[in-house]
Specification:
Length: 156
Amino acid sequence: MTRQTIILFFALFITLESCDDSSSEEVNPTKNEGVEPKSTTVENSTWRNPMITPFGKDIVSVIRGYFLVGDFDKMLQFVTWPKEIDSTEIKLIIQKSTWGYELRVTNVTWESDSTFRLTLRTNIQNTVGTEQYQGVIQHDTAKLMLIPSSKKLFVK
């Protein structure tokens, strides 16, 4: 065997040995005795975090993205509104709104009735401000509550 072949086999052996998944640690079943399991309330369920969506962005950025490109059907999947208004009327209200400015979610606060409040930093014509949006979890999806009477859509 040549020297290069020996080095290749040695490198392969080291690589495979480092991938070995066996560990010599023993699991101590009594280690967690007396510790109560974490309850799965809305406050500490990480999968119900409206700040993070499957798209890797907060819910407001997802809705704003659909708003800016005019895909209102997709946008309405992440919005809830009063039942007395139908979706075609909501689409007309959204088209007339002035909600396309820069938004960044800074905080999430859970309410006692399983709703949440998002605090956002806004930037409208180089003026920094804050807004708060109400949201709710419906069918494992975070949805913002749309206010039809508001020009800013989600602000009362």
